[in-house]
Design brief:
Layout (H helix, E strand, L loop, with lengths): L2 H13 L23 H21 L4 H13 L3 H64 L1
Length: about 140
Amino acid sequence: MAWDEWEQLKTAAQDRSARMQLNQASAQDGGQGDLAVDRQDLAAIGDSAFKLFEDLGRHGRDAWSSSQAAAKDLITQEYELGTGLDVVQKKWEKQLQSLVDACAHISNHMDFTKKSHRGDEYFIVSTVSSIETLDKGFDEGGKS
């Protein structure tokens, strides 16, 4: 893009009374863009994941000992159902562990996101400010 073309585009944008907005939604949208994150929402998701993690850890294995005892008893009596019950119990244990791990991951990630969001916000504001300063320098350099 040539310098003259850039100047024409800037003039056309000013003529339409449009203003370039970086990292910010228009006032019509209530100031909320697609990337808006509410810290309370993140906290609620993290809290729910943590509560589910705790509840699954506490109650997810309540039937384990009775299921294992029943499976052993049925196997001893040579019922094939005993082996089936043992397989189901092992699969339940594996799925339960996957779910508990996922809940812990979600909870930890929400905590991390809340903390890092503050740093991201500072970075974005400082970067946008730098772009604005650079743009002003080009405006001043083009007018001489």
